[in-house]
Amino acid sequence: MGPILKLTQWIFYFINKHLLNHETIKCKQCKGEMTSRKQYLALIPAYFDDEHEETAEYYINNITPISDESEIPTGRRACCIHVFQCGNCGNKLISVVDFLKVRDKILVKGGDTYPYEHFREHIENYFSRYNSEE
Fold this sequence. Notes:
By secondary structure, the chain is an alpha+beta fold. The chain has helices at about 1-20, 55-60, 115-125, and strands spanning about 25, 35-45, 65, 75-85, 90-100, 105-115.
């Protein structure tokens, strides 16, 4: 169990360092620099240490957009959705970081990256009024 726990902690550290706190990542297609163009915040139907699928379909079907962190109820998980775009080839990518806010700390619970096309309709229609960054 020890090595699995260490690996899990490293994965969360990597997600936090490279996807949550940074504004750029490398493009998988051309290795160019991808910049965070838009960010959205949403609630998910999970609390504390609940487990759920980390698939694009799960997030698309279960998120509820919110405008800021003050709308996150105590114990409820939320996710930050970043839309990254490559400056070289224009490729877009979605980064979802699932987190729990405990007092003033953000505890990363999971997350992954997904092709933009999976989220396109949801972002263009559902999130348009909750856009937190142009």
